[in-house]
Write a structure and sequence with these properties.
Layout lengths: L4 H10 L3 H35 L1 H8 L5 H19 L1 H14 L7 H33 L3 H28 L2 E3 L4 H13 L6 E4 L10 E4 L6 E5 H6 L2 H17 L1 H31 L11 H38 L2 H11 L9 H7 L5 H21 L1
Parallel strand pairs: 2-4
Antiparallel strand pairs: 1-2, 3-4
Helix pairs in contact: 1-15, 2-12, 4-6, 6-7, 7-11, 8-10, 10-12, 10-13, 11-12, 13-15
Length: 390
């Protein structure tokens, strides 16, 4: 009987069972609604800041301080207070919701400790970034959105460069893959791709998530491939090799820089539209702040958040292209289509494998698992046909 890619794809997906597929569908749809929930919470937080005048009062108390210090402290105060006001939603979104679907086993105490660290980091980093934005507004006037897009590019590149060194180790333990067949196989693959051995690591991703995952992070000397211990525990040797081949594809093809470029474009467009919409949205909330006022940061970020939802399909489309290219790289270099398909199916537990075309285009940052498995099976069929013709 001839190999049929469609039949094999259906076998992989249906092998999850109807109960698991339904749970994946429910979880995926719920994550879409969570986006709307997050926007509503952002709007409520904005309304609270405007109505209470918290930032205006703080700014008035700091009036005798230098402009830069006052702006930095006002921005930091916003990020800290908004995180505290929205903390119940944050706990539900990042922990309670995930736990209800079995996607995390992290104890609440550990979660809240890490969340507090994350809030502290975002408060300082957010304060510094928007200090830069408001400085550019003062110096460049109506062109601030253009310069701020460049600032966003610099911030994104700096974050990508420094995150593996300074930030990620705060939340997870990164170390070499233990000695054994898996390590031997991965280092052989790293040698073939010209990747230093110390750039292939494992991390305790199970601390936060039960998801089967791996990633590429960093650039230049900080670039590395990191595989979650969940993936290493659940996957066969061939599946680990196929997944690593996919991540090596991201590394070799330089997909991180593509992400930086799209962030620049989206940031510039977002700030441009925010500049044009600011006064109308501020009036809607009853705020007298102007776009150049740090006290108007809640309004500015609300606009950017809403625009970000509309930009998400564009960013997702770019990421999906990179994921398809990385799959093709894995198939071409590792030559394990069934192992890649088996590994992909493990991700279907938290990403419904059979979305509609519209759902995939709007919400999915990866091609659907069904589509990715089908490509692997088509690749297998093509090579079986070539082998049979010899």
């Amino acid at each position: 009987m001839a190999f049929d890619p469609a039949v094999e794809t259906a076998r992989y997906i249906d092998g999850l069972g109807p109960e698991a597929l339904q749970k994946a569908a429910d979880y995926t749809i719920a994550t879409h609604w969570m986006l709307l929930g997050g926007l509503i919470v952002t709007a409520i937080v904005t309304w609270i800041f405007v109505r209470t005048g918290l930032l205006e009062r703080l700014s008035a108390k700091l009036q005798n301080r230098g402009w830069a210090l006052r702006t930095f402290l006002v921005c930091m105060a916003f990020f800290l207070l908004s995180a505290l006001i929205s903390l119940p939603w944050g706990i539900y979104e990042e922990w309670g919701f995930e736990k209800s679907y079995g996607r995390t086993s992290q104890p609440f105490g550990d979660f809240i400790t890490q969340d507090a660290i994350g809030i502290a980091l975002s408060t300082v980093i957010g304060g510094l970034f928007f200090l830069g934005v408001y400085a550019l507004i003062r110096r460049t006037g109506k062109k601030w959105w253009l310069w701020s897009g460049g600032l966003a590019a610099f911030a994104a590149a700096a974050t990508i460069l420094l995150s593996p060194v300074l930030i990620e180790p705060i939340f997870n333990d990164y170390k070499p893959v233990p000695e054994g067949p898996v390590r031997t196989a991965l280092l052989t693959m790293a040698d073939e791709a010209g990747i230093p051995h110390d750039r292939v690591l494992m991390f305790d991703g199970s601390r936060q998530s039960n998801n089967f995952t791996a990633n590429v992070s960093g650039v230049f000397g900080s670039a590395r491939i990191a595989i979650s211990d969940v993936a290493l525990k659940q996957a066969s040797l061939d599946e680990v090799k196929a997944v690593t081949g996919h991540e090596i594809g991201h590394y070799v093809l330089g997909h991180v820089w593509r992400s930086v470029f799209i962030i620049v474009f989206i940031a510039m467009l977002g700030f441009f539209l925010a500049d044009r919409l600011f006064n109308r949205v501020a009036a809607l909330f009853g705020s007298k702040a102007k776009v150049e006022d740090p006290e108007g940061l809640p309004i500015l970020l609300l606009i950017v958040s809403v625009l970000g939802i509309f930009a998400q399909p564009v960013l997702n489309g770019v990421i999906r292209t990179g994921e398809s290219e990385a799959d093709a790289y894995s198939l071409r270099t590792v030559n394990l289509p069934d192992a890649l398909a088996g590994a992909l199916v493990k991700t279907a537990e938290y990403r419904y494998p059979r979305p509609s075309a519209l759902q995939e285009a709007i919400f999915y940052s990866h091609p659907s698992v069904e589509k990715r498995v089908r490509r692997a099976m088509d690749w297998k069929a093509e090579h079986l046909k070539k082998a049979g013709a010899r």
